[in-house]
Amino acid sequence: MTQAQGMETTELLKKVRAIELRTRGLSKQIFSGEYHSAFKGRGMAFSENREYQHGDEIRLIDWNVTARMGHPYVKIFEEERELTAMILVDVSASGNFGTRQQTKQQLITEITAVLAFSAIQNNDKIGVLFFSDKIERFIPPKKGRSHILRIIRELIDFKPESKGTDLSMALDYMNRVIKKRAICFLISDLQDRGFEKILKISSRKHDLIAIQTTDPAEEQLVGAGWMLLTDSETGEMQWVNTGSSKNKKALTAAFSEHQRWIKDTMTRSNVDHINVFTNKPYVQPLMQLFKQRGS
Fold first, then answer.
1. Does residue 162 share a domain with residue 50?
2. Do residues 87 and 76 share a domain?
3. What's the whole-model pTM score?
4. Are residues 123 and 56 in the same domain?
5. Three-state secondary-structure class, residue 41
């Protein structure tokens, strides 16, 4: 390893450690209880038989065992707590956009880390799928701190091969590789269309939650005169007068229309959806989501 590579590795480990300290604390103090109540187990699983006691429900009697033993036995069930959580992380080029405290990608990294730590505190497995307009990387669900640190390291250091966004392809891939019902968090700026059909299929197969990341400049154009703007995913360049009230109104209207469409699409597919901004704390909307589901 060269000295430069050594420095890069040290820097990366520092970043991983900083995110771990921040997000692990958050998930312990705030999210662990809320996560548990928001995402309950798969249901009740058979545990054992025991002799019937006064007050037991008749419907719990195991008639086969009762006939064999000559006196009543009942089935005992307990909640199947262990779950699998999958996080679908949008690593397309639009995630590099950020005009305030952080980029959308940095916000995604933090939220993914919080969800991952909340999942392992709940004794759930956690897996991650990185996608752009292709499947960039799949990390199968596992437990443990070292597994989560690997996920955080990948999030910070990952260099996608492609720039675009294809939500349909990502959801379809997840449905094929994750056979059993799982909690699936889709974290993306949702800058795509045409994924309605696969969204409905995914929502029926899994417990799907969409966390949308947004920068305030996407909602409202900052007036700074003529600027050469580049579409980070297509590379298309265009001169835009950011001081023009007509352009500002057009952008706000386009953003509002897209948000209406997203909300409508999520509602129709029975998918819980929240929007988090790069210039606002994500704790409140995430807590609200968990509480809403828990109740």
1. no
2. no
3. 0.74
4. no
5. coil
> In this predicted model, what pLDDT tens digit does every residue of 232-267 receive, in sequence order?
556 666 656 666 677 667 667 777 888 899 999 999
Q: How far apart are CA 98 and CA 157, in angstroms?
A: 18
Half-sphere exposure of 62 (CA within 13 A, CB side): 16
Residue type (1 letter), 135: I
Domain count, the chain: 2
Identify the sign of the CA torsion 279, 281, 286, 289. negative
DSSP string, 70-96: SS-EEEEEEEE---EEEEEEE-SGGGG
Which tokens sit at 219?
Answer: 């909602």
Same domain, 53 and 74: yes
Range of the domain at 285: 3-38+83-294
**Of 222, 181, 200, nearest in space to 97 by CA:** 222
Spatial distance between the Cα atoms of 190 and 173, rounded to a whole number of angstroms: 17
Where is average pLDDT lowest: 7-21, 110-124, 240-254?
Answer: 240-254
- 215 φ, ψ to 5°? -105, 140
Least confident stretch, 48-62, 95-109, 146-160, 187-201? 95-109
